[in-house]
């Protein structure tokens, strides 16, 4: 969608955002985009959704002083804002008044400067020393004379027993570190530490041409590679007014659902592995190979796909693609019962998952936990239903929801969604129309001036792309909405009072992918 912002002054920002939340029911904070607007100053774009009507709006606020930029926090309105504001602070140096945790999120605590500012100049050299992390958080407020004052809040007391889960722990599914305070085996508090695989993808995109940026998307959530690139291609195509053929839309929809099968099968296998069930892990990996075979014959890749491009597809589908996808659907449908027989009904799984790690619908929305995590709590947040794109508005499928909000509900959502993916594919695979697989673009793609946001339903939730174009061949600002960051931000809420072994179950069913979080 093209963004037409509501613009608020800093002094009115807190009250106006509260009105949007309470009076207009914009209860879902989709994302916060920090941006250096140049001479205009440093500020943020807030994208909000009314979860009843699915109406979306955007808000723009610019800090008055570039050297001491500050904006009031909205973390008291949306819980997920706390970690999103930390990300903006880390990269732009904008202080959020009232946010109780103004620490860097991805970069070292001794990093000098704010790298997403347009005037940032990196210092030569780098440190091989350990990062001396502070044992306190910072909260900023304004004095009566308008100057900033900082208040320290201790992270730990002298009696706290603190352990690290990760970043090398296999059950964190990547280099995520969860600093955990325990009372015996009971979790009292979790502080997530991100950035161990941070690569500055969004910053690099500012120097790349639009086709060059596509190569980075598959390396974010590599199990939603198709959807990541789909979202980026779609936002550029919308901005340029590119009309795709039905053939392109059919193929993209089929490929997205194959990618969802790929991801959910790995989810099933990893849930089993985390709980020590090796047989189910082997079953999931066995059938994932069959899905990857179908994708590989067309894309040439198994993990990094590199298939979508601005204006369509890299190449047409393989001559055997339709036949092999139909074989895959017939093969995999009976396997779903096998998954239930070997694992879902297992008493160990049920004891480890049922009633464990409960996330309420209200908190799922407040943290922005989209995808299967939100739908397991009863939140209808499927982008394919609420904001249909490509062929999703023309096929029949069910949005899978549960109400328990526990590990078992999150697990069941994924298993049921695989059946729906097969259902979508079967409706399309015999009806792919003739036509061009690519709408030819100019050698140098220049996007008109403006700001857009487009999203797709990834394997873990909404993957969105914010684009600010100044009419050049490179984006002025490109921001990816990660699926996994809201999930990690909710872990403290989900796990407080649970046992330490439950952290493994919760992490498995939240299904985050670390490069998507870190970007």
Describe what this molecule looks like in 3D.
NDH-1 is composed of 13 different subunits. Subunits NuoB, CD, E, F, and G constitute the peripheral sector of the complex. NDH-1 is composed of 14 different subunits. Subunits NuoB, C, D, E, F, and G constitute the peripheral sector of the complex. One of its GO terms (molecular function) is oxidoreductase activity. It is a single chain. This protein is 39% helix and 18% strand. It is α+β, with helices and mostly antiparallel strands. The protein folds into two domains: 1-118 and 139-153, Beta Polymerase, domain 2 (2-Layer Sandwich); 201-507, Cytochrome-c3 Hydrogenase, chain B (Orthogonal Bundle), CATH 1.10.645. A four-stranded mixed sheet has the order 1-4-3-2. The chain is globular and about 70 Å long. The mean pLDDT is 92.
Features:
2 domains, 18% strand, Beta Polymerase, domain 2, alpha+beta, 39% helix, globular, 3-stranded antiparallel beta sheet, 519 residues, Cytochrome-c3 Hydrogenase, chain B, quinone, single chain, NADH_quin_OxRdtase_su_C/D-like
**What does the overall shape look like?**
globular
Using only C-alpha atoms, the radius of gyration works out to 23 Å
- How many β-strands, per DSSP? 16
Largest sheet: 4 strands, mixed
CATH superfamily annotation of the largest domain = Cytochrome-c3 Hydrogenase, chain B
The computed structural class is alpha+beta
Average residue-wise pLDDT: 92
> According to CATH, what is the class of the largest domain?
Mainly Alpha
Low-confidence stretches: none
Q: What is the count of helical runs?
A: 17
